[in-house]
Every structure is written in C-alpha cells, then in structure tokens.
Prior knowledge:
The chain is mainly beta. It has 4 domains: 125 residues, no CATH class; 84 residues, Sandwich (Immunoglobulin-like); 92 residues, Immunoglobulin-like, CATH 2.60.40; 138 residues, Porin (Beta Barrel). The protein is 7% helix and 47% strand. Strand 26 and strand 27 form a beta hairpin. The N terminus is likely disordered.
Amino acid sequence: MRSRKLLCFLVAILIVGAGVSFAQTHKWTRVGANTFAQVKGNIPTAEVMKAVAKKYAGDIKMGFDQVGMGPLYLPFMDQLNSGTFTDKTVAVGDRFAWMLFRVGGKVKAWEDVEWAGKKPLEVFAITVKQDTKFYEFVIPKPCGNIALARTWEEAPKIVIPIPPATCDLKISPAKVNVNDPVTIDMSGTQNAQSMSIDVLSAAGTPFTTHAFTPAAPRWQMKFDKPGEYVIRAKAVNPEGKVSENPCEAKVYVNNPPVCKLWTSCLPCEDYVGRPIVFDANGSTDADGTITKASFQLLDASGAVIDSFMDTEKPFTWEKVITKPGRYSANVVVFDDMGAPCANTDACSSTFDVTQKRFFFLAEVGGLLAKGTYTGYLFGRLGMMWGLVPDVMDVIIRAGGALPLYGDPWKSFLMADALLNFHLGPAVYIDAGLGYTSKEQTTRMNGIDVIGAFGVNIFNNYRSAGSIFAEIRMPAITSGRSFDLHHKLLLGFRYIF
Length: 496
C-alpha cells in the first residue's frame, strides 16, 4: 500500500492562565489538506518527530511568533526532540486555541479552531512546561498541522495543577568513621524546586544544614565526633508547598578504639639480649572489637628500626634488643571498622635498655707445658666486667692444671688479669699478665705474659660460649727462660 504523502503532525495542547480573544470559530472538518509538515508513515515515531523538528524548525518558530507565543518555542522543541508522547482522542466539537497550517507553502495560523469532523480524532499528546505552567499539545495521527488545544469552556491556556513534592533521601554509608565522607543523595525527589536537610545529634542538637537544587541533588559531608546523627530532609514544589511524606535517615559515626600499652620491663636494666614484651591487650572499643595492633620500635633519633602487625589475640610483640640505648615503642590498635585509636600518646613508651656488664667465667681445656710438651688438663674460674660493652672487658681468673704424666711434672696454679678486646661480633683477643707456679720442682714460678685469640660459638648477650687458643710466656723480668717456661692452651670459655 502506498504510504500517505501527507501525515498530520499536530503538536501541542497548551494549558494557560491568560485568555486570548478569538473573533470567529473556524470549523475544521477533514485532515490531510494544507498540512504544516509532511512526514513518512502513518504513525509518527520518536525518530520521525526528531527529523520533523530538525527539518521544520524555522517554520515552527515562525508559527509560534505569529500566534504570540515565541517563548514557548524552545521548550516545545526540546519536548518534541525527546520523542515522549501519549495517546489521546479529540472529540467532535472540541476546540483548539490556535492551529498552524500551510497555504501555498506559507505558514498560516487559525485562532479558535473547532474539530467538526464526523468522528473523534486520534492524536498524540505532548506536555510542555515553562516556568510554573504546563501546556498540552496534541499530534493528530493522520495529519501534520500544529495546534494548541483547549476545551469549549476553558481559556486558551489551561494551567495544569502543580503536583506536590515527594521527598526522597538516601545516605551512604550509614555507618562511618570520624572524618570519613558521607554522601547525602536527594536525586530521587519528585516535583521539587528546592530541597534541604537539617542534621541533628542524637540529643536533637543542631549540627549543620544544607540546601539542594534539582541540578545539584547530592552532597558530601564529614562528622568530626562519634555518635548517632539524624538527618531530616524536606522538598518544596514550585508553589512553595513542603513535602509531607516522611523523609529522615540516621548516620552512626563509629567510636575509635582506646589504646593501652604495657611493657614487660620498665626500667629495662640489663635487658640487651633479653626479650621485651609489648602488650596491647588492655585496649578497648566501646562499640566494636579490636581486630589488629601495629607495633613500631624507634631508636633515640626517631628512626623506625623494626615493626610488627598482630592480627590475632593476644595483641603482643616480643622483641629482643641487641644494643643498649634509648628506645620508644609505639602501638596503634584498630577496630572492626578499621578505625585507628585516637589516644596515640597513651600507646607510646620511651625507655632505656642497658646491657649486662658483669659476668662469671669458666674455662676448661688442654695445655702443653714446654719441656717435652707434656700434656695437662686445666680449669679456671673468673669474673668479667664490661668496661665498654661489646668493645673491651676486664677479666680476672684463677685455676690450676693437672699433668697427664707423673714425675717430674706436677700440678700448678694460674692467676691472671686480662683485657678482652672485641674485634667483631664473634672474634676477640686477650692480652694481660698472669702468675704461674712451678710445674716441676726444679723450675721457677713467676709472672707470665698472656695472649689469646677466641671465636664465639654462640652469644645471646646474656651468656656466650667460645673456643680460644692461648700462649703463656715468662716475663723478661721473671728470671725464667722462654724455652723451659712457655705453655700452649686450647680450651672452651663459657661466660654467664
């Protein structure tokens, strides 16, 4: 079937408050002649309407100016381009305020037009809003004219009552930490010209207010104190009427945890090499639970030298400090919302760690005495005092040696005073003087010069074990010869 060449495109029944005088009613009895716009197809679609709006924009503007309604042109075109229509029927005898058509290619306008056809006219209706007024336009399905509709009794412009505003309030998230952003969204509010909120504490004390517009219906805010807050919203329609539906929400601001730190040694005397326990189990959370604790150990300059995160109870950290000095321990606890404690000063401790300086000493091993390098077993006990920890110590010791063979060898005594020098964490040397009694009846007792070299097998700062090699030589002033009186020792030293 051949498509109609002329399709009626009648837009607009506008409801207005001001009347327009019409000299004579024009009877309109049929469609299809003198159409304002030609479109393809019997029923206009959204895309067809957009095409018509683009093609006939200038003629539509001219027609609106002819009927004295130029300000409605842009709102009308916006609605036409949106392609939003509703079906409606114009009864026989219904009248229009005016109608645009075309004669000889020129745009013409009739005022006070009555549909006088033989049956009701099917149309598409469009509502256009300007300021606080709504205008209704219609599009006859088989025609292409443009008209502003009215009923017989109504004025040329019919003002549709403005609907009441419906308030809609959304809060995200509903539970936050102090100073976390909260989004307040009123974009779901209907028929509002303006919107606003009042924020109150749980006790009803005003906290803040904010005004919204339909163009900017969202806002972010922060709360600097914990507790529950009430947000009450309202919306106002273009006539100034306030929304009546309930519009309220609550925000809960999390209480941060309260931190408490306990340290196993205060003061930490002689604690180099000993474990120190930092304990945050005394921390509490008023509205949740503690989920983790972050520990830091700082030196005297404030530099972090070690850290630890504990995510399970008990929230403790055991740390061995290997150097004396002043240290600070800091801990931050977090609750089940990830909020850190606010009282960080209460979870910081500064303390001095000193190193043990006085030790007992025991040595055992084998000894070769010059002569035929006869073997002995020796043992010594003593004391060690750290003059400069990990650098230099003073050793006082005494003991004896038992020969592995009989005459002419016999047991003898040793008593020494030494300086112990640390060459590193595992190596040391000894130097000093000692006294040795006779190892044979025919020999002499006297003063020895002592030198030793040792290597630590273990060292936990509270005790240490090492293997050492030692030589004892007669002092020049002792009157004893080196050949007959020097001794070589290899032994194990334990300090505790």
